[in-house]
Design brief:
It is built from 17 helices and 4 strands. The chain has helices at 5-32, 58-63, 67-98, 109-118, 124-138, 143-173, 189-210, 222-240, 246-254, 257-268, 274-294, 302-333, 337-359, 361-371, 373-400, 402-424, 430-465; strands at residues 40-42, 48-50, 176-177, 183-184. Helix 7 packs across helix 15 (373-400) and helix 16 packs antiparallel against helix 17. Helix content is 76%, strand content 2%. The strands form 2 sheets. Strands 1-2 form a two-stranded antiparallel ribbon. A two-stranded antiparallel ribbon has the order 3-4.
Amino acid sequence: MRNFVPDLIICFVLIITITVFRLFSSILHESLGDGPAVPPVAVADGTVIQAQEEELTLSQLIDRKSKEYSWLLRLSVNTLGYICIFIPGLLIYKYTRRIKYLERSDKSLFGNVVRVCFGSGSDGERGLESKTADRGSGAKRTSMQDCFLLVYCLLGLMGSYLTWGVLQEKIMTQEYVNADKKKAHFKDSQFLVFTNRVLGFLITAVYLTAKSQLRQRAPLYKYSYASFSNIMSAWFQYEALKFVSFPTQVLAKSCKIVPVMIMGKIVSRNKYEFYEYITAIMISVGMIFFLTGSTDESKTTAMTTLTGVLLLTFYMIFDSFTSNWQGELFKTYSMSSIQMMCGVNLFSTLFTAASLSMQGGFYSSLQFAAEHPKFVLDCVVLSISSAIGQLFIFYTIATFGAVVFTIIMTLRQAIAILLSCLIYKHSISRLGIFGVLIVFAAIFLRVYCNHRMKTIRRRHMADAAVGKPRLNV
């Protein structure tokens, strides 16, 4: 007879965790809701009545705080929502390991869910993926086909990410007008992260289902770490636009090479060539020149500039961890890029949904959407362009390699800065332009040196294979 006690304990852990965090949310709501009383209002006949204050969600209460500090409060609430997923997951993981739950013979729905989350997938689809890859790589393409494919990838990446960049800046910095001609800003970055990740998950899930590759090779919980760092980096990226311009943000992304190298040393113990350190220094210097020469003194203060730089720094730290952790998962489990995207977006959807539910972000965001139809269109197009852009990234790297992809994305960054300056009237001084040139020169130098080093290594390996003496280049 089946033992239902472990299943009941797991359900009990979930219920208790949700209850405790809802209690924390209520306490935080009460503490933030303590404000000045609503003054009485006199009506036409002279009667004085007490105005009824509308019940505000936790998200709306945070929005009423000063912009320079509200991001920190919202970050704390977001993190509390993420912990609501992490803690029960950790407790269930420890419990199932202790009682050897995964070794049970029963195949109930509940047990299968636990196995998918904490057990390793089968290697059955490995052969399917490798056969598919072999078929794709075995067919030789003509120069004309290569040219058409390159133009296809170029237009796909440019179109999707330029659209995404323009809409990202519009949503986070521009005002929307409702039917009563009242203007308002959209403030909840977490909701944008949620919509992007939901659509990305649905697209990849449909694709993997059609290809019969939905079963993951890695335990699902392995994706949670990359997912957490991914949504944190995305949130910091959106939030930074409240304090710095989009060109500043785009150029700052080029500087993430520095934290990526640092994280590579820490996480993967990578070693780097001399030219990589030189180009990293060049990028950092160019970014400093750009920040110095592009600040509008009439619109910014020392506090907003410092806050923007701090948010961008956190963005780069979390984003660098994401790429390194995903690299380790690829090495260990050899899953496809689409499977990686599906797993990460699944947890990102769970994390952001838990956080939004806790702070009432769904209600406030949907209320804003109902009052501002143009926001709905921008949000949908933003999510679609983000999901399509991710698919084009994987396809371009698989078809032409990382070098071509890096060159295309570097050109995209330059065009994105130009578009932002033209559409949203950003001003950049000569020193700022000089900084931009240094950054892009360093990126192209890095791509060239990387390609050159790989060519030299292949030549040395070929010479060693045929017994020729090695030449120093």
